[in-house]
Amino acid sequence: MLDFFRDGFYKDLALLLAITVLFGAVFSQGIAWAIDAYFGDTLDQMIGGYGEYDLILHIRAEAKEAAWRELQRIGEQSFPGYKLNETLTIAGQANVFFGLPPEYRTKEVLESITSYFGAVPGLNGYTLMVQPSVLIRGVHPGVREELREQIEALPGVRFAVKDGNNLVVLAQGEDQLPQVQEAIEGILDQYQILELRFPMGFAVDTQEVGDRALEVLRAQEKLTGNRYLNVTSAQYGEDLDAFLKTLVEMRDFLGSYASKVRIAPAAGTALAVGERLVLDGAVQAGQELIVEVTGVFGDLAEGMIIQGSPVQSTDKVVHTGYRLSADGERGEYVGEVEIENERYRLAYAVEESLRLLAELEELAVQASAAVDNAEAVLTTFQEALMQLEVLQVQMRQLNEGIAQSEGKPSGEQFLLTLLLNGLFQTLAQSVLSSGEESLDSLENLDIEEMRRSLDGISTQIANVQEINVAAIMEQIGFVRDTLPDLSDAEIGQSIRLINTYLGGQVIPGERVQLLIQGQKLNEKELEKLFQKELDHPYLHTYSTSAGMVSPDARGEIFRILKEVRSIVAGLLAIIFTLIVLVLDHATIFSTLKQLRAGKKGAVRPRLRWADPLLLMGGILGSALLSSIYHLARGQIPFFTPAVIAVLGFALGVLVAVLCERFSPVDSMELMAAQALGLSHVQIMREVVIPPSRPGLLNLLNRFRQQF
Amino acid sequence: MLEIRDLYKSYGKTVALDGVDLDVAKGETVVIMGPSGCGKSTLIRCVNRLTEPDRGSIVLAGQDVLALSGRELQRFRRQVGFVFQHFNLIARLTALDNVMFHLVLGGMDREEAREKALDALDKVGLKGAAARRPSELSGGQQQRVGIARALVTNPEIILWDEPTASLDPILVGEVLEVMEELVQNTGTTMVIVTHEVSFALRAADRIVFMDQGRVVEQGPPQQVFSEPRSQIGRLYRKLLLN
């Protein structure tokens, strides 16, 4: 086969290869460059030149005109010399570019964008695109200020501005950006955020666990040079996390507020989650009560009312349940369904509390009056008792006087004695139970103690009266009025809606975040250590950076454009190589096949794939594609130089195998040319190439062709 | 002039030439006849190495043909005229260019080559069709261009590979006429593969019958047709008599 090239065609082939590679590279890169330039120019027209605008304000399309007027007003009032430009409106959102005059590109202004532009009608947010700048994305709040201080101390840095979770670092000049970026990356490289994540449902005191985790880290001998900080306070700082947590709480609240539905399936009846039951029995007028099964636990199931309202009762109400088919038909009996109307119970309890409080206030007033009366009675009683005692003494003295008088008492004296004794007894009996002994016991009554008790009661009643029952009643009334006015069906639908939303979301569990400055740690190595030391086998560790330097919005677009250019160049290189192989090299391969047809010895089938022609095709394809791809600066993801070489080889082999289909050579003309004693190069130039497919080979041959 | 000894050629399991020996004297016209597939065309293609024999020897004008390679082989081929069954003209070239282009590529001055080519075309009666392309010519005319192309170099030997086999019977005559004229007037050594029995009888110095890759009989036309010794000879005799 080499004879074919020896007599001069190798020069033609070498020239063809060189021009093919050159042309292919220029073609591929040229078109890619044109695409790049086109989009670049389009972008420049859309978003202005580098540093021309500092803000993209995202405004609802319908408020665009009002926003425009307001922006003009703000510009004229606060930023004389401003620039304003409207660009694309995408999905109902207009994007307006605002350029600050250089003197206003200050830290103070850039950190107060919201205060300047917050009142712009229809404003949905803004994006900082001030230049020249380096954007650090996802800066952890726990290290933001520390980073900012260090970054602002870097040479070439004007200042750093907080923009949401990002830091925008303004450089003094565009030419200083690379070194500023490198220095920032160096600073960020010193930091690491180690995150300890706990599964959902585990209640963890993140502060305490974080401190313990720090102790574990500090106890590691090999990590003594590091600085550690618990920065867990930033947990749930992200809006989505907070929103999801709120949703979960809301769902739980609604779940507990809804009527409790317990289903006792009849023997042999199996229920599945999601099935619907229609209930018979006491329901509110004109409504059918439909329940959806939300859980099955052995012999019991739980459900949720999705249509109708249960009767208002504080007691459990039992219904009979029937399966409900998809088309709304009532099916077979499935068991008894017990419903507790929690919502009604709560409302009932609140109403009763209000009644109780109203009664309590009245009761306190009346009790206070009763105590006062009791005290007055006690005073009267005490005075009466004292008079009785005096009378008793006087009686005793009278009796003793009569007894000590000489001679018999006179009839008057005796009658007086009897009269006085009788009167005393009557008085004593009217107060106490019996005679003189009772009077003694009356003497033993601790009137003072009783008075102290009454004073205690009086104090307590006074305390009760001091309670602001009216305020309590007002608040309970407020609670009653603010209780959601939702039917069970509405609650059920809301819970289902929340579940549907939550089903597509990842709800993070508790997490502890530790800032590490110094030597980088391997989080996977530490995972087991933490699991053991913190006694939590389900804990997982993750490592993130404290922030990530990324191109600014404009730089990002141009980076993507550059990637697209490289991909387009790579694809064009592959396509060009294939075209060249088919148009030019297939002709050469066909000729070689024809020429060797009459040679000695046919290729054995087993050696078919070791065919020198296929090998030559593969090598040519590989060399062509690799060279063109490299020179065109093609870069397709996953297409390493080795992959490109293999792909080129495969294309070459494919074309060599199918060469006679791609570019057939007239065997009779070829044979005649051989018979006439033409050299191979003459055969190619005069016989084979001229009628071949139009390509570089054909084009180049025209300069050499004699006939 | 031409000495072929013990020539073998096979295509896979099919044996095309099975130890062929053949001598052709200078100026002799040898007609090779035989049934299709007997190896006639393979034999003359081996002579100018369009087909490579497996073994044997071919000596032409003292040159060991099978030892030639590269430029020597190209030079050798220029000394051998070859007329193909299917004319094998270059479709994109005119009749004149088809006749002269290999002269120019061989180093001849273009004008001289043109003169020679026109002369060759004149010999085959096609000078007036010099500017036409093959597609504008009849089959017989195309073959005559092919003959002119073979003649133009004044070769030492002309090999004819069934020159009339692809022609309409009406056109065969004009080609055979040219061939007979050449045989009689040029004195060039010719080896002609054909089935034209009457032509062979008139023009051949010697007729060679081949069958199954071997030479089965050869001799002067009157001898081989009057007293054929081989089956093939008898068949051709019968054909001639019919």
Q: Spatial order of the strands in the main sheet of chain B?
A: 6-7-8-3-9-10
Structural class of chain A: alpha+beta
> Sheet bearing the most strands of chain A, described?
6 strands, antiparallel, barrel
* Major sheet summary line of chain B: 6 strands, mixed
| Percentage of residues in DSSP E strands of chain A | 15-25%
**Secondary-structure element order of chain B, N to C:** EEEHEEHEHHHEHEHEEHH
CATH superfamily of the largest domain in chain B: P-loop containing nucleotide triphosphate hydrolases
Q: What's the total count of β strands of chain A? A: 18
Shape of chain B: globular
Rg over alpha carbons of chain B: 18 Å
Q: Count the helices of chain B. How many?
A: 9
Poorly predicted runs of 5 or more residues of chain A: none
Q: In percent terms, what proportion of residues of chain B is strand?
A: 15-25%
* Count of the domains of chain B: 2
Radius of gyration of chain A: 50 Å
Tell me what the structure shows.
The complex is a heterodimer of chains A (707) and B (242). Chain A has 23 helices and 18 strands. With 707 residues, chain A is α+β, with helices and mostly antiparallel strands. Chain A folds into five domains: 2-37 and 555-701, no CATH class; 51-130, Alpha-Beta Plaits; 195-235 and 510-550; 260-340, Elongation Factor Tu (Ef-tu), domain 3; 347-471, no CATH class. A six-stranded antiparallel β-barrel of chain A has the order 10-13-12-11-14-15. The longest helix of chain A is centred in the middle third of the chain and has 63 residues, at 342-404. In chain A, 27% of the residues are buried. The model of chain A has no long low-confidence stretch (mean pLDDT 82). Chain B starts with a strand and ends with a helix. Chain B has helices at residues 40-47, 70-78, 95-105, 110-123, 139-151, 169-186, 197-203, 221-226, 231-241; strands at 2-11, 14-24, 29-33, 55-60, 63-64, 80-83, 157-161, 189-193, 206-211, 214-219. Chain B is an alpha/beta fold and 242 residues long. In chain B, the strands form two sheets. A six-stranded mixed beta sheet of chain B has the order 6-7-8-3-9-10, with helices on both faces. Chain B has nine helices and ten strands. The model of chain B has no long low-confidence stretch (mean pLDDT 91). In chain B, α5 (139-151) runs parallel beside α6 (169-186). Chain B has two domains: 2-79 and 156-241, Rossmann fold (3-Layer(aba) Sandwich); 90-154, no CATH class. Chains A and B meet through α21 and α22 of A and α2 and α3 of B.
